[in-house]
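Structure first, sequence second, as always.
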């Protein structure tokens, strides 16, 4: 059987051999949730970039520019990474250039070596799991964390994936076991469990509880974004 592993932070990514693996990048609050929602709602592509300044390289192409740092929209940009900025009315047919504190960095690091990079969130949990079962390849669940530190919300999602795949994959590391245990402890009240997280305290100060609640919804989307070249686009499978 293929194996499934969990990398709890991008700072540990070099420890994993991912050349033949599908890497699922996870940044639940809020980058991968917003990306999934945007592609579901008809965005032509989302281009993840590392730095705020990198967005400016696309300023003359007619793309929407989105930049977030520390949970807030960077001044002068069209929007940040709230899922409610990625509605049909705003993004259908558009290409968006996006930089976030954690998620877009994780995507670039993964792309350097991975067989394939896809985006996972609670919004597309079942689609992601069904795809991974179908492909039958090694999987690394890459938690974007918070500035290279471990965080709860990304690990909980990793645990949700492990729960669905554990009978079809070899659980390859203790991080997967820990993520699964955490998810099984928290899954009946994800929002309540996350109230103790450090990121929750940051987001409460930004008054975006509606975003948090939305990002924890299950299977709102069927779409899986996949990184092809520099663009995240809708995966066909």
């Amino acid at each position: 059987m293929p194996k499934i592993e969990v990398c709890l932070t991008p700072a540990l990514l070099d420890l994993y051999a991912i050349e033949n693996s599908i890497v699922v990048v996870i940044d639940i609050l809020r980058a991968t949730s917003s990306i999934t929602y945007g592609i579901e709602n008809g965005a032509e592509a989302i281009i993840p970039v590392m730095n705020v300044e990198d967005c400016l390289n696309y300023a003359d192409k007619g793309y929407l520019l989105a930049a977030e740092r520390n949970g807030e929209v960077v001044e002068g940009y069209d929007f940040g990474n709230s899922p409610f900025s990625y509605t049909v009315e705003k993004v259908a047919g558009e290409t968006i250039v996006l930089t976030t504190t954690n998620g877009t960095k994780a995507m670039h690091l993964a792309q350097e070596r991975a067989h394939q990079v896809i985006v996972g969130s609670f919004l597309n949990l079942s689609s992601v799991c069904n795809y991974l079962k179908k492909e039958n390849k090694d999987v690394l669940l890459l938690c974007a964390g918070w500035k290279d530190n471990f965080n709860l919300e990304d690990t909980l999602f990793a645990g949700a994936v492990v729960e669905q795949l554990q009978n079809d994959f070899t659980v390859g590391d203790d991080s997967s076991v820990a993520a699964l245990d955490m998810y099984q402890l928290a899954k009946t009240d994800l929002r309540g469990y996350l109230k103790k997280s450090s990121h929750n305290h940051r987001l409460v100060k930004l008054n975006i509880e509606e975003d948090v609640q939305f990002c924890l919804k299950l299977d709102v989307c069927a779409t899986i974004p996949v990184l092809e070249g520099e663009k995240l686009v809708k995966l066909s499978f």
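Margin note: The longest helix spans residues 152-165.
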